[in-house]
Please model this.
Amino acid sequence: MLLADDHDLFRSGLRAALETQPDLTCVADVRDGRAAVEAVAGLQPDVAVLDVRMPVLDGLEAAETIVGSGVATRVVLLTTYDDDGYVLRGLRAGISGFCLKGMPTEELFGAIRVAARGDALIDPSVTRRLAQRFAAGVAADRPSPRRPPPPGLEALTAREREVLLQVGRGLSNAEVARACFIGEQTVKTHVSRVLTKLGLRDRVQAVVLVHEHLLLED
Model:
């Protein structure tokens, strides 16, 4: 993985912590977004962990460039509670994780592992606040009028739609299982089918779909 953060102490501390994990290897650490883009192009790590606020090129711009380049590298963005306005843009860019800097280190490691496996994870509190902003009609950078139902939505079974809405609320598989009174493995199966039917890459795109189409109002 690659780490990009302009705070030298935080970056070095996180790299040192990463190096204690036998399954995680930091191939490079840089302090600005432009350097991150260049390093990803040259090294093509499985995951790039980017701070949202960086000089030269910020994390969002770097993420958009990296994802748009077509490389296989997955992007996990780091932010603080004050950065809610950046969430939607990051999700639209196709990131695979949105984590808060204050989260426990082990949870961040978990998010990196999830991204490396090709899945995605957003801090539930970020997702829930995003839902509140959509409901208020002020999500991120613009109001969110109802859009036509996305293609494939009618192909979902009632249970699959229920699971999709719970994912849109920011629930983990375990939380969805409890909310729907089904097993966690069954949730994983439903999520996989939902992504396939709707042509989505991962659950991050499912969250965006739920909120952009205001499906939680139904």
